[in-house]
Amino acid sequence: MSDAYSEALIVQEVAPRDGLQIEKQWVETEDKIALIDGLSACGFTRIEAGSFVSPKAIPALRDGDAVFNGIRRGQGVIYVALVPNVKGAERALAASADELNLVMSASQTHNRANMRMSCESSLAGFGDIVRLVQGAPYPVSLNATVATAFGCPFEGRIDEDRVVSIARTYREMGIAGITLADTTGMANPRQVARLVARVLEYVPSTDLTLHFHNTRGLGLANVLAAYDAGARRFDAALGGLGGCPFAPGASGNICTEDLVNLCDEMGIPTGVDLQKLIALSRTLPALVGHEVSGQVAKAGRNCDLHPAPEYARAI
Amino acid sequence: MSDAYSEALIVQEVAPRDGLQIEKQWVETEDKIALIDGLSACGFTRIEAGSFVSPKAIPALRDGDAVFNGIRRGQGVIYVALVPNVKGAERALAASADELNLVMSASQTHNRANMRMSCESSLAGFGDIVRLVQGAPYPVSLNATVATAFGCPFEGRIDEDRVVSIARTYREMGIAGITLADTTGMANPRQVARLVARVLEYVPSTDLTLHFHNTRGLGLANVLAAYDAGARRFDAALGGLGGCPFAPGASGNICTEDLVNLCDEMGIPTGVDLQKLIALSRTLPALVGHEVSGQVAKAGRNCDLHPAPEYARAI
């Protein structure tokens, strides 16, 4: 029987990186390792486990080397490291990261604000990292993110031709994996369907990741639009951790357990154990020192039924 | 040019009723009136302005009569009152409500818990209200809600045949307007598309309303699925007010400004002024005494750009 929702949706868990990087409360290295090991036990095949950025820029993740060296590598799980430059890539390779994720914004202004360099300088640096990885002592895959692909908080609308062109440039440079990131939650499902269809002309769905934030409440609607358009891999953060410095109080990344619940309810296979995931998510408030935005960890699954009140049973 | 998103989406604002009814902090009558008047100025054509329920059952809305008598009636705006029984209907007619909304759950257990009677007793009461309205001294329209249409927190899955059958029964009784309510946020987009298509065989889209809660983060995804299936009218609450006693901490109704932002971004006409709506939503935390769950009032619209940091301008 043909079924529009029978193809698996791959969830790449990014809480250890994109989630924890903005947390003010220091998370101990051993707690980071326990979190990642807990995620590995939930059935993920891809986990962005940390970054190798300057400790001055992102102090919360300054222990990336110790984290990568301390985790138990799950069978068949790809542990991704975000790296901003050759120095970070060297550290990631020394820590045996399976995949390096590079980032450049489609918006020049956002790239200058986020990476402190022009897009041209970012691309030149990517070339250096590609060459480094080609000489690596073990097989390492490469992914590059087009940040602000659906809108920029400084520049506003982003030309879709430019996003497609950047994705093509990444591929031509030898970077197989492409992530389209809605860095500050400006995407809408109509735009997502259009841009995903265009990028899939150049990037196979097995190499494409969509990264949505729930800043304006549209994260899961955007996932479905992208899935309907042929995308199959999505970033999400446990508890909906993460956020945007330009939207204080707003949600961060789309929430992993909310996404997996959606897939479970619609019959889309993910391979992730929702019950374990919810239990792990409920440990987050103690870990980060505040409530998190995810809904399903609060509400429970649909199948977690409640007892009817006494008076109702007597009617 | 044909456009899948050119048809208007009608937003029925329900914060004054479904939102305020569970608030613990008493909202003064004059503040309720100011809120409704503020909503009328935003461009809504339908506002659920209050209920005529026993003050013991819902003390927060015990001033329904004074609220309906105090508001400024906007030109062409339909002010709806929720009524649980004939007594409530009489009060609503005395207060010149334009439309009465009746409620019964598809789940027997939920109806007993919520309405303290069986579904059969509820339907008998609906018959009495229909007769009362037929003799009303001014034209009054009728709507009836199928609560727990997409799932019940006590019983779990709800038979779709039963939901369709209840909608048909309502229509046969002389109740034109039908609302399918996802009372505790258990719906998923696939189920929504299927059930909306089935109900539209019996109910014209001009008479059908979808009422979604965001309990598990799927509210706006469900709206799009319903819109794609032909539904055109949706309940939403300013700030995402409302909630479910069985999901403490989880979101309530879908958030009006988040829905209008989605429509604005996708080009779906609503007739609602998003900027005014956001300004009004930002008054809610002071009114109800706590933060609310809506995202767009925190993050702003996409077009509300931020200045780039100084250092980025120098690169």
From TrEMBL, chains A, B:
<keyword id="KW-0456">Lyase</keyword>
<dbReference type="GO" id="GO:0046951">
    <property type="term" value="P:ketone body biosynthetic process"/>
</dbReference>
<dbReference type="GO" id="GO:0004419">
    <property type="term" value="F:hydroxymethylglutaryl-CoA lyase activity"/>
</dbReference>
<dbReference type="InterPro" id="IPR043594">
    <property type="entry name" value="HMGL"/>
</dbReference>
<dbReference type="Pfam" id="PF00682">
    <property type="entry name" value="HMGL-like"/>
</dbReference>
<dbReference type="GO" id="GO:0046872">
    <property type="term" value="F:metal ion binding"/>
</dbReference>
<dbReference type="InterPro" id="IPR013785">
    <property type="entry name" value="Aldolase_TIM"/>
</dbReference>
<keyword id="KW-0479">Metal-binding</keyword>
<protein>
    <submittedName>
        <fullName>Hydroxymethylglutaryl-CoA lyase</fullName>
    </submittedName>
</protein>
<dbReference type="InterPro" id="IPR000891">
    <property type="entry name" value="PYR_CT"/>
</dbReference>
<comment type="similarity">
    <text>Belongs to the HMG-CoA lyase family.</text>
</comment>
<feature type="domain" description="Pyruvate carboxyltransferase">
    <location>
        <begin position="9"/>
        <end position="278"/>
    </location>
</feature>
<dbReference type="GO" id="GO:0006552">
    <property type="term" value="P:L-leucine catabolic process"/>
</dbReference>
